[in-house]
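Task 17 of the worksheet. Students: predict the tertiary structure of the chain below and write it out as structure tokens. Keep your answer in the requested format; marks are given for formatting as well as content.
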Amino acid sequence: MRYPTLKVFIALLLLATAAGLAVGFAACTAEPRTALVLDVFDLVDRYYIEKVDRRELTANAFVGLLDRLKAEARFQVQSAEVKKILQARERGEDAPLPTPEEAEATPIPTPYDKVVIKADPTFIDVRIHGQTFRRALEYDKRELCKTLLDGIEFFRQTLGLKQKPDELLQMTLDAMVDKLDPHSGFLNLADYNNLMEDTQGSFGGVGIEIGMRNGFLTVIAPIEGGPAARKGIQSKDRIVAIDHVDTLGQTLNWAVQRLRGMIGAKVLVTVKRAGKDKPLDFEITRERIEASAIKTKRLPGDIGYIQIIQFNARTSAEIDKALADFRADSGGLRALIVDVRNNPGGLLDQVVDVADKFLPGGLIVDTIGRGLLQDRERFATGRGLYTKVPMVVLVNSGSASASEILAGALKDQHRALIVGSQTFGKGSVQSIFELRNDTGLRLTTALYYTPSHTSIQAFGITPNIRFNLPEKEEEGFDMRESTLAGHRQNPETSVPPKPEVEADIEPIIKFYLARKWIAPLTGEPGDDTDFLLAFAKRLLNTNDLSISALIERGRQMLAEVRH
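Model answer:
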């Protein structure tokens, strides 16, 4: 549940249930709302990566609730302003969207700006419109639970909030847990169902990939053979309404929520298409969509290419099939490029299974948390069929969590050359606890360490050959763990390791463009515009594919640019 700020979901997940892990909770016989709060207190007490004072947790809940209410009000104003700009664009007017800097420079007033909260671990004091809610914060969790529920009701009545009590409670619990770190949070029914669908790799939907293009909700591509494709939805169609509700000014997540749903139910999608004067309506029946975890192709020189989109429940099996197909081709599999750029992570057991295919033995990852639930070393079985295939792994700042475990294990065990930019730096593990009423709790329960017992928290994986973005792109685009508010510091060191080879990417791209090794990016990105893929293919165009030889070849290739 996220109100309404956009938070990137980057996770390494262990799935669990509160009932299975916490039998005997005192909450079992309590009133449902009380029981839900007590469940959250108990789970944080038992499993969060470090001990937390539940009084501070309660104080943070009030502060976080106020922050969420203010953010939601600002979001509504911003959405209305964006909608006006997009409507002007529809009329052909030149109407640029404000930059983040421009938006921040003009604070938006909210009805909650005069609410005053004073809090420390011993008391909470809330003042709204001349009325005061003040309570001592006792360590007893039932007293804290009562304080929290009474405080939420005080907010609701004195501010005249339209949200239902259960919705306000869920918003408050999410704000409370969110204060722990950027990756912990309360999951409402929709969030929990989406998470389960994403990790399983299947869901009820219409079968289209969508994105924002110039502020408009746009079809990137329909899934071949899916319900949307059969109905006639095309790439570059602009979705203007879903079930008669205008999409202008809405978020991508809003659209995903409405396109997904019960299998067999219908959804009306209205699009504008280039060359058509009037919008087109498509009534589509939702079906079970099996989302591919990977994309593959065979490159010249008997090189296999696997892009891992996410580590869901289908990833390992899909990679097995792809590798077998590569090997069965007439040329066999001389080398492999694994692309985990912009892969946000996923399931821990899946990344362990994937790494096991390429490692002859040894440690894959070590997770260390509070107690037996998390402290565990995971080793390669030594039964992998591809332990001698030369490998290059492509990474960038969007490679996070499970992607970093794979890159770290292959790098530390000298099984693959890592090429790209510094990765995201998410070195923590989240466990998902199922709560009552089909809600859930995502809680940071451990840190993970690579085979060299290195934590990548807030630093990321340092590639063997690292390309650095221009400073202006680092500031405007590059997001990493270290830029997230409330992120955990690296427990071991303050300086990440240095790469064997390092270069600024801008002059190298110009060099490749001048020699027409890549094409200029004028529209949608593709293989012909992908510098890093072009670099990897040239890197592997040699007889000696050992890690040391590839590093030296990379150094020589970059020296060409400098000369």
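Marker's comment: Residues 11-189 form one domain. The chain is about 35% helix and 25% strand.
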